[in-house]
Design goal:
The protein is an alpha/beta fold and about 475 residues long. The protein has 16 helices and 16 strands. The strands form three sheets. The protein has an eight-stranded mixed sheet with strand order 1-7-8-9-10-11-13-12, with no helix packed on it. The chain is globular, with a radius of gyration of 22 Å.
């Protein structure tokens, strides 16, 4: 088995004022904001108008089903090509318009380009059409905050893609997607609550996006087993906790697989043919990817989940949630968890998975937003210069994670503080793009990095060292079954 590693990330960057305590607070907030699927940000509880009641929890799930599906829904290619994407965070075009309220919402978030989410997704769809793939997989957080209209918009795009090309989509929910009290629209200058979806709504809306391919469905969650071909199966796992969202008033960040779901997983050994290749897909990570912030991102019962998956011969999972593209391999049970980064956040990547009899290859590609904008005749200057504009925006946001004023209060000169901020901005951009190894030597030899070694700054300094840990390029990897 050969493995190559990659990292990507997502961040919200608000410059804070203050002295030493302000720098500590800024650093702590920055660390939290890096992980964009949490519930702490973009809360509508402050100043939202015309509040609607979130959709009630629907606990009634269809019973377990194990059956064959029509051959037309199974690839005739023994070893299919899959385009993997995660955390698309779509906000349907019908739910927003260009106004000050919406701009504030986007600017106060975690760095996602929500205002362009539909354009980025459509550009991704065009890239998929040209790639010759058989499947798209989305590992959760399809929507910004579980808006029903956003779910329906995504399902419509994916259904149209299938009718046009035969490329089939398979989805699982993320922590933002179901029973989300934060579902909002941004019209006429107001933030207003809109309908979210129940678990049953989710399954109904995405019936043609994976559930119609299921050879078995879990009656206790939205998990299902899909037959991709006669040779390859995918176990699509619902790892989210959404039954308490309405009572709590926010979407739960963490996830787990119930004992009932684990029992269902283990029962699938009687469904999967001997010799078939199989991997799993979940929103939450099945291994810890960063020690700094793992609570709520690594599955709460990750060890039990891996044990059940191992009984099926599954040693590879694709996940999302942390908005950082990364591969982690457990030295204990030889299990790999591959995180695909957030589609709507720098550097707007997706991954192509090429399966074979021996294993699979995973390679990251940027979405060609600029080309799509030009072909569509769009006039937005940011979209027409997307690669440069998005990269510069991310650099600027990353630079602002560091307060020059606070560093100067700690005794650094303005020029030294600027050097330190530049190191953070360059390293953060490379980290998100999975290219930190390529600039590691340059960073190590930089004046800014040397100055950080002298700084006593909690949270920021450990984050810098976290970004410097990887020793292998991470924009592709290979895995033997």
């Amino acid at each position: 088995m050969k493995v190559f590693l990659k990292k990507i990330e997502n961040a919200d960057f608000n410059k804070k004022k203050g002295k030493g305590a302000g720098l500590l607070f800024l650093s702590f907030m920055m660390c939290l904001m890096l992980w964009g699927c949490g519930q702490a940000y973009d809360s509508p509880r402050l100043g939202a108008e015309n509040l609607d009641t979130a959709a009630p929890v629907d606990e009634a799930m269809p019973s377990d089903e194990t059956h064959d599906k029509p051959e037309m829904l199974v690839s005739e290619v023994d070893y299919p090509v899959i385009e993997m994407v995660s955390d698309t965070h779509i906000l349907a075009p019908s739910l927003h318009e260009d106004n000050e309220t919406f701009r504030r919402f986007c600017e106060s978030g975690d760095g996602k380009l929500v205002q362009y989410s539909d354009v980025i997704f459509n550009a991704f769809i065009e890239d998929v059409k040209a790639a010759g793939a058989q499947y798209i997989m989305i590992s959760g957080d399809l929507t910004t905050n579980g808006e029903k209209a956003s779910h329906q918009w995504i399902a419509d795009q994916l259904t149209a893609l299938y009718h046009e090309t035969g490329i089939k989509a398979l989805v699982v929910p993320g922590n933002h997607d179901i029973n989300n009290p934060y579902a909002l629209s941004f019209l006429e200058g107001k933030r207003q609550y809109v309908d979210t979806v129940s678990p049953e709504d989710f399954r109904t809306i995405y019936e043609n996006c994976g559930y119609d391919m299921a050879v078995s469905k879990d009656s206790h969650s939205l998990s299902y087993l899909a037959k991709l071909s006669d040779k390859v199966y995918a176990l699509m796992l619902d790892s989210c906790i959404y039954d308490t969202n309405e009572d709590l008033g926010y979407p739960v960040t963490g996830g787990k697989l119930s004992q009932s779901t684990l029992n269902w997983i283990e029962s699938l050994q009687f469904v999967i043919p001997e010799g078939a290749k199989i991997f799993s897909v979940s929103h939450h990570n099945l291994l810890t990817h960063a020690e700094m912030l793992s609570n709520g991102y690594t599955l709460y019962n990750d060890e039990a989940a891996r044990e059940s998956l191992n009984q099926l011969g599954i040693s590879l999972n694709f996940s999302g949630h942390i908005h950082t593209q990364d591969v982690k391999v457990s030295q204990v049970d030889d299990f790999a968890d591959v995180v695909t980064g957030c589609l709507t956040q720098h550097p707007q990547d997706y991954a192509e998975i090429v399966t074979s009899e021996e294993g699979l290859q995973y390679k990251v590609h940027p979405v060609t937003v600029k080309n799509y904008a030009q072909k569509q005749g769009l006039s937005d200057d940011f979209l027409l210069d997307f690669d440069q504009a998005a990269s510069q925006l991310f650099y600027d946001q990353s630079y602002k994670m560091v307060s020059l004023e606070d560093l100067m209060a700690l005794g650094f000169t303005k020029e030294e503080a600027e050097e330190m901020a530049d190191v953070v901005a360059r390293l953060n951009g490379a980290y998100f793009a999975g290219q930190e190894v390529s600039i590691k030597e340059d960073i190590l030899n930089s004046k800014g990095y040397a100055l950080w070694q002298e700084a006593d700054v909690p949270f920021m300094k450990p984050y810098i060292e976290e970004m410097m840990k990887d020793t292998t390029p991470g924009d592709h990897f290979e895995w033997a079954w």
